[in-house]
Amino acid sequence: MNLVNFNDTGIAEKLLNEIHACAGLTGPVKIMEVCGTHTMEIGRLGLRSLLPENIELVSGPGCPVCVTPGAYIDAAVELALGKRIHIITYGDMVRVPGNEASLEEAKTKGAEIHIVTSPLQAIYLARQNPEDAFVFLAVGFETTAPATAKALIAAYETNMDNLTFFLSHRIVPPALAALIDGKDLDISGFMLPGHVSAIIGEAPYQFLADRGIPSVITGFEPIDILMGVLDLCVMIREGSPKVVNAYPRIVRKEGNPLAVAAYEKMFEPVDAAWRGIGMIPRSGLDIRDAFRRYDAAKKYGMSMASPEMARQPAQCCCGAVLKGKIKPNACPSFGAACTPRSPLGPCMVSSEGSCAAYFKYEMTA
Amino acid sequence: MNNSLVRLAHGSGSGLQQLLHEIIFPVLLPGWQGILEDAAVLDSVPGRFAFTSDSFVVWPLEFNGGNIGKLAACGTINDLAMMGALPRYMSVSLILEEGLEKSLLSRVLASLRIVCQESRVRIVCGDTKVVDKGKADGMFISTSGIGIVPQGRNLSAGNARPGDAVLVSGPIGLHGIAILSQRKGLGFASEALSDCAALDSLVEALLEKAPGTKALRDATRGGCAAVMHEMANSSKASIILDETKLPVPDVVKGACAYLGLDPLHVANEGRFIAIVPAGQADAAVFACNTHPKGKGAARIGTVVERQRFPLLLKTIIGGTRPVEMPSGELLPRIC
Q1: Are both B72 and B175 inside the same structural domain?
Q2: For the whole model, what pTM was predicted?
């Protein structure tokens, strides 16, 4: 496959013209992208500056790092500093502020923090250092959950005793359901996350169409994103809400059943706290009892499932931003008390957070 | 006792003499028979000097396309060349960690020497220290350099004016990606070969064909973005880039997509950004492309009147966005 095709300037121009033509026949359109990578790409492309004025793009709760509760970070820091446990994590988590400190700050105090890009590297690290205890911070949506499950199976089958998993996985569809159940949300359509959809397929989004909200499973190259916007505009103009798969080269209708089976075998859905948003029923994953030996939360006595976990400092508007109620630059702390260098809230810290994307890329910010 | 490793005892007295005469002098200064004095005494030359200093802590010590020694020589030579200076003298200070393999030390020093020879730079002084195991990542190198600035050259990052062309001397991001791909834990392999190179001869070729060149800066830590931010800010102007013109190799594109990085933020060790009057832009691009170290050079943007952001990018779909200064340790310790 040649990705250059999806960067074609000529095709991009045609699609933009079509979007402008279509938008002339719709009223105001508010599209929410629910994937941090979309947020970043939209910013990186300078897309907002090219869209018709009546099309607004807002960012939803699509950055898994952003919605991880501060108390989870605090617990990880306590493991690292208090119990001298080696923490293995994705790079993005390192600078996320907890309520007390970040892992980066813990590292300057001597904590052992290892950055990896796959949980299988956690297995490798723990095997190489049998005298040390390791905890893997398992965060992310349906995209990373299968990899966590694979690593957990590997640990279980080889009877490893120095590695456990601290789960904070989240599932996308329940969050979308919670969003559209909210009273004050006026979203005309959803740009659905391509990577998550590659795992779960099209069916879990059908409830959106049933509720009259169009949605498009969208890829990440410039042409993909423009096609996503155009498909949404067309459905809004025609009043025909459907789930459209505009990323068929990666996303199959049924998704990846093997990957789903892998994490459903190890994990069960539980109510979970989303930072800045609150509790969402059955939106998180917990390790099933049969594998509890590998559950860091149980081993070290940490509980994350309570509404307080979602709380944010008063001057941080991440909750309203994640719900699409305000744009990041409408938060009084934006760019002042809160910058990527010293973030107040989670949306500013992750490279995929909506506030970080706005801070980096939006001319109007 | 294992004689293949550097030991603490090599840090002073007879141990140090042994290390100097067994490895450091034979490799760095082959055939040298002089007397070790406390300082180098250099002949004076008419004109102005450029003087620079840099330290190198890269990990891994050896990477695709180079090693810490090559980097240490190139880094200092390039800093001189960016001021239009002809590099002439270098100091080399080594901080070695106990347990370092002597054979590795030899390879590193040989690379350093080869770069200096090619650029006709004399290594005239240096220092060697050995520290306890755990106090340094194998070895650190610090180099300083002196160059001579020919009459009439006045390159400065503050010289850019609206209308000037912005050039990059070759494909970007290769060094940073080569280093990252060899780090443990990031879990990706890459064919990226570091661009690490001494740029003095390329600069001479450029200045010959584009004598009006106003500013040069090598795009090391922070990548091209950081350097162009500095140039724009120093010149109280802005720079607008054309994304379709950026020479980003596929290996860099792919790795950046995987790691969530912007190629403009990724470090280079053999590329510079040049500010050239628009009328000499074509000649400058041609001069670079006909030199072995400037293949792939391109005009990537234009200097414009100062705007709200110092560095802007016209994207491939025609949008415009600011390119931010990389913040924090995006790529820790790559040079």
Answers
A1: no
A2: 0.84
Tens-place pLDDT, residues A319-353: 888 777 888 889 999 988 898 777 887 788 776 67
The answer to whether the CB of B232 falls within 8 A of the CB of B324 is no
B168 and B54 housed in the same domain: no
Per the domain annotation, does A266 fall within a domain? yes
- Which of B132, B149, B166 lies at the terminal end of a domain, its last residue? B149
Specify if A302 maps to a domain: yes
Residue A351: predicted pLDDT: 66
- In whole angstroms, what separates CA B34 from the centre of its chain? 31
Which residues, at least 6 apart from B247, have a Cβ–Cβ distance to it below 8 Å? B168, B170, B171, B172, B296, B297, B298, B300
Domain that holds residue A348: 318-361
Structure confidence by residue, pLDDT tens digits, A84-120: 999 999 887 888 888 888 899 999 999 999 988 889 9
Final residue of a structural domain among B120, B149, B178? B149
Closest-CA residue to A148 (of A159, A157, A158, A137) = A137
Residue B334 pLDDT greater than 50, yes or no: no
- DSSP bridge pairs for A56: A30
Q: List the beta bridge partners of residue A236.
A: none
Domain count, chain B: 2
- Say whether B186 and A117 touch across the interface (CB within 8 A): yes
B141 and B182: one domain? no
Q: Is residue B34 part of a domain?
A: yes
Domain identity same for A77 and A156 = yes
Cβ(B87)–Cβ(B200) below 8 Å: yes
Give the lowest-confidence range in A49-58, A342-351, B23-32, B71-80: A342-351
Instruction: Please write down the HEC assignment for all residues of A98-166.
Output: CCCCCHHHHHHCCCCEEEECCCHHHHHHHHHCCCCCEEEEEEECCCCHHHHHHHHHHHHHCCCCCEEEE
E strand intervals along A183-230: 189-193, 215-218
Answer yes or no: is pLDDT of A161 > 70: yes
pLDDT higher than 60, residue A3: no
Q: Which chain B residues are within 8 Å of A362, Cβ to Cβ?
A: 321
Write the ipTM. Answer: 0.76
Burial of B285 (0-12, 13-18, 19+ CB in 10 A): buried
Q: Which residues of B touch A351 (CB under 8 A)?
A: 260
User: How large a percentage of chain B has pLDDT more than 70?
Assistant: 95
Residue B157 DSSP class: G
| Portion 144-173 of B in contact with A at CB < 8 A | none
- Domain presence at residue B332: no
- B102 domain-assigned: yes
B324 reaches A (C-beta below 8 A) = yes
B328 vs A340: CB contact, 8 Å cut-off?
yes
